[in-house]
Amino acid sequence: xxxxxxxxxxxxxxxxxxxxxxxxxxxxxxxxxxxxxxxxxxxxxxxxxxxxxxxxxxxxxxxxxxxxxxxxxxxxxxxxxxxxxxxxxxxxxxxxxxxxxxxxxxxxxxxxxxxxxxxxxxxxxxxxxxxxxxxxxxxxxxxxxxxxxxxxxxxxxxxxxxxxxxxxxxxxxxxxxx
Length: 178
Known about the structure:
By secondary structure, this protein is an alpha+beta fold. It contains six helices and ten strands; from the N terminus they run βαββααββββαβααββ. It has helices spanning about 15-25, 45-50, 55-70, 110-120, 125-135, 145-155, and strands spanning about 5-10, 30, 40, 80, 85-90, 95, 105, 125, 165-170, 175. It has a four-stranded antiparallel beta sheet with strand order 4-5-6-7, covered by helices on one side. The radius of gyration is 19 Å and the shape is elongated.
């Protein structure tokens, strides 16, 4: 069982602060407790940077989980992940085609997607696990985010005949090609 993460909500807009605190009560993995140190402090400046009004409370909870997971951080150092015909430099958001040495710029989500698959022991993950790990989506969220990002990544890899780098098995699992 995961340890609950503590969030302190300190906003001038009392109604919004109360709504967020109330929403935290219904989350099994998040809590609001001023008596213990905060894992995440939600103040005015933070809130303005992270969210645009009007907000959806479910979206806010998903964003809190994402920020608390640390998935938004970059990989330290210049470690390269070997992906067959490509090398992934996660710290630079770069994929390098080994044969031509051409560089392919990656978005943060493309980098996290590839890195998550690389770091998986079987180099295979379920759709739900990828949505949680890369995007911080709650279980059961209906979205085409993963498929859209895969489509765009495959377009970038097509000139190198690498569009099959990530394969879907038709059962909701994605893996790196061998």
